Amino acid sequence: xxxxxxxxxxxxxxxxxxxxxxxxxxxxxxxxxxxxxxxxxxxxxxxxxxxxxxxxxxxxxxxxxxxxxxxxxxxxxxxxxxxxxxxxxxxxxxxxxxxxxxxxxxxxxxxxxxxxxxxxxxxxxxxxxxxxxxxxxxxxxxxxxxxxxxxxxxxxxxxxxxxxxxxxxxxxxxxxxxxxxxxxxxxxxxxxxxxxxxxxxxxxxxxxxxxxxxxxxxxxxxxxxxxxxxxxxxxxxxxxxxxxxxxxxxxxxxxxxxxxxxxxxxxxxxxxxxxxxxxxxxxxxxxxxxxxxxxxxxxxxxxxxxxxxxxxxxxxxxxxxxxxxxxxxxxxxxxxxxxx
Length: 340
Description:
25% of the residues lie in helices and 12% in strands. By secondary structure, it is of the alpha/beta class.
């Protein structure tokens, strides 16, 4: 496969700042027998990663300097984890080992020479979990602070390609989102039109987590789970935000099989800015007059109330009973197929 620059591989530098490293762990769980061979086959050259690469210390420092002075072409700068600007804007809470300089400064300067800049995970994109509560680290995303444009690089920032920061939001990101983004960049097939309003790649952000959910039949009839472990829809009582969160988690399952909802956990909307500070307990759906506050995206309240009432009145006994148990007790009725 041809690379982005006259047959050369897409050069990718991956740095980490304020975060847990979960996006890198997720990437290692890509549905692949050899992740690094797949990267090479896709025309991607991973120059350095703090956990995956053998080079460290002086070798890594020299590579960063080579990127800055033009000796090493830098196509993609990936940052995992939020930028730590504290205390008081100095960035000294996170100094890149062996350099004496804040990671904040390295990221800002490398972003100026990179052809593309990519925020890997919701922390790098919006601040994420690293920005929860009173945080003296003065944490921010690369080009957003929560849902507001700004961040370390500012709303007007554009990489060498003219693109803003590409936000692969998620906590953690799905490995497929990372690989598909990098592959599209290697092929030269990603432009501003490929991103949504929050700069997330549209190939996954144009979907809702609700799409492909294994509990959708329960949702259709408002056959709701009542306690954790029940098979029913988790939206009405147990805090699921899958009808509001932008991602294709249930269409592109982890390891071909898993997702939060398939595992019995409500969607917490981890691809959205501010998910880390919900106004309610995770396993709780806030309501006003019995109506969930967080309605499905694009759904007018009056229509939701009317459809919910109609759906519940038409609910099959099978769904009503299965929704509030941890295993299927009633199976679909077997009927003859009309072949006429």
